[in-house]
Amino acid sequence: MTELRTLKVALLGCGNVGAQVARILLDDADMLASRAGARLELVGIAVRNLDAPREVELPHALFTTDAETLVKDADLVIELMGGIEPARTLILTAMRNGACVVTGNKALVAKDGPTLHEEADKAGVQLSYEAAVAGAIPILRPIRDSLSGDRITRVLGIVNGTTNFILDQMDSTGAQFADALAEAQRLGYAEADPTADVEGYDAASKAAILASLSFHTRFSLDDVYCEGISSVTAADIAAAKDAGFVIKLLAIAEKLPAAGRETGTETDAGTGVSVRVHPTLLPREHPLAAVRGAFNAVFIEAENAGELMFYGQGAGGKPTASAVMGDLISAARSIVLGGPGRAETTTGQVSALPITAAVTSYYIGLDVADQPGVLAKIARLFAEHGVSIEIMRQTIHRDADSTIESAELRIVTHRASEAALAATVEAVKSLDVINSVTSVLRVEGV
Amino acid sequence: MTELRTLKVALLGCGNVGAQVARILLDDADMLASRAGARLELVGIAVRNLDAPREVELPHALFTTDAETLVKDADLVIELMGGIEPARTLILTAMRNGACVVTGNKALVAKDGPTLHEEADKAGVQLSYEAAVAGAIPILRPIRDSLSGDRITRVLGIVNGTTNFILDQMDSTGAQFADALAEAQRLGYAEADPTADVEGYDAASKAAILASLSFHTRFSLDDVYCEGISSVTAADIAAAKDAGFVIKLLAIAEKLPAAGRETGTETDAGTGVSVRVHPTLLPREHPLAAVRGAFNAVFIEAENAGELMFYGQGAGGKPTASAVMGDLISAARSIVLGGPGRAETTTGQVSALPITAAVTSYYIGLDVADQPGVLAKIARLFAEHGVSIEIMRQTIHRDADSTIESAELRIVTHRASEAALAATVEAVKSLDVINSVTSVLRVEGV
Fold first, then answer.
1. Chain A, window 12-31: residues with a beta carbon less than 8 angstroms from a chain B beta carbon
2. Catalytic residue at B122?
3. What's the whole-model pTM score?
4. Which architecture characterizes domain B140-315 according to CATH?
5. pLDDT attached to residue A3
6. ipTM of model over 0.95
7. DSSP β-bridge partners for residue A416
8. What is the CA radius of gyration of chain B?
9. Which residues of A touch B298 (CB under 8 A)?
């Protein structure tokens, strides 16, 4: 192997994932050389604090606080610092200096993907970020390459392990959100400040990235409707379970049906893409329903391929490092072979649709007065708004002496637009027989 | 798009998959051009019979019986004829003339992969065959690219829809093999001559391909131990079900544990790869156990990535065409960008192990005499052969007047070598208390 050229690798950040990447680069150098066709030499690791404790013991001489200088002299730059700045500036500097960049920075790619890609194209270098979505699961590359001759129509992803763990706990133990969150924090699945996970922001970044690659159009975080799981109650989960559903936080990107037949171009005038994150009811027999704990999975529907699912570990140092290394080897191969692969095709012009244009089924829970004619009143009101009811079930709760405590009405609708549903729910609220609307949740996979 | 160059595409074969590929090339030309960066012009379809009925209506002028001339004037050749010859000669001719080749021919790739790859390398063209394994599921490219910086330790695949459908039928209805096969034939899931599917030969080809890519070493069909499902009985399935297992025909490729620690090179002296196809018991909670009907799935274990699963449609015209088109677009991009990607790294030197070296758990069913001391005798015999018993369960069947009809003993072992197990089973047979060995099945995923 002595005749192989050597490529210089700079690593920015040395947290969980970074430390594992460094370990692999150092320990598996021969294997990596045989895979890449070049030796990959780790020339430096940029960190904020030289003396911070690391997951893995690494040679002290590799560490530097001068990221700026480090990236200017590398063939391959791995950015695992997270956050927008200085990550953004360092990546741009690296690419302008001719380095291929691998990053796991979902927030940055979702926010500023167009700028980064433009710069990569201009510099003729590869920019890849498999680790940014669903950890170890190869998903971005299959979408970009394997499905490049097909038309993806819908993507449903469980892309946040923290929320999946919490919902799974609530489902299996009947716990309330706060207790399940505390348990997740205790086990290290949730951070001290869990906002980014539980409010869906992390999943929203991933949704923007998945939508961009799936529909060959660049969507940013601003195009994503986002609703987290903090308002999901144990009662919601129990009611869903009772009706044969499980509640998952899904990242969804789907092309809405065109009025006419598609023209075979990417423009598809009249269609648009709805990109959204929200708690979603899934039938228990749906392949995504079986994704438990902190695992991730992405379910894809394509015109010719049909249904595909990709499943694996969505986080963690080693799994995420595996994805980083796959990108790194591919980038190294492209350098060895001369010239980059084109990373994305973005000839598409489909527009992002507002949440009001989304079309899905809904689950609605109502606390109603137990009077004759209530069901008829409510059914009529749904019909007037053009929302068709698929299932309506009333449960009467009685107290010890058999007087009625409350009546609970659960409705699952056929597919309807968010706008029509919202108008229906508003109207329902003003009915005198309604005590309260206890939950409104979207349903997929039926 | 007028400034895009045009690449000539030749199609060999026009069965289910070929007809769908032709349709996509003709109907979605603009989309494909935007994805590939070049227009893909279908210049001809080579068939044996010009007037055979086709799944899709296609321009008559495209058809020819002269495959030889067709492949010599193409930039991209898609081979979907199947069989060894003339497919092999045509592919070699195409590559020698500078064309990139996409094929779905698992039998040919499994039999003669080394020759084909050597020729592709020599000609500097891409050779790809995603459609050859698990239909629409992107699996070969993820193994080759996404997992290129990781070490795969094991691959378990449900890669034959016919046998999965039959086993699923047997499991859900209690049917015997012959009846489930007849049902599969009636529904078009099994061919009139089902030998290649039910005896595992189709899965064995796929196992050889999966093993080659996963372990960076070229394995051929001769390296694969193969056992089909025709001897699996309804009683086997029922007994497995009773014990919490499902029986699947699995294609397995796994690196056997090294005596010492791996050295970081691909050579891994002292280790080897066991490549095999056989009916296998899987715990019902294993992700592969839920793969129903004619679906396919591949479960991968890698050192850093951990457990991954890829799921989707394993056959059918449109799904398989999707995989062909993904390869075609990638090959076209490589031509547009100049120079091929290296398709495989095959620096590995791990050897294929004989089935006797495989190490797994076993399920053994015995028809035994109901005498005191039988269990002790059998347990001692297993111990003498170094095969450790995990579960031993005796079921006594009585007839109407309560006399004992038979006693059935079911044993699940801990992991043991095939050689040790075979010796144990031979010894058990000669015990006077044994009426017969009713089944010996391998167990994975425990």
1. 20, 24, 27-31
2. no
3. 0.90
4. 2-Layer Sandwich (3.30)
5. 78
6. no
7. A360
8. 25
9. none
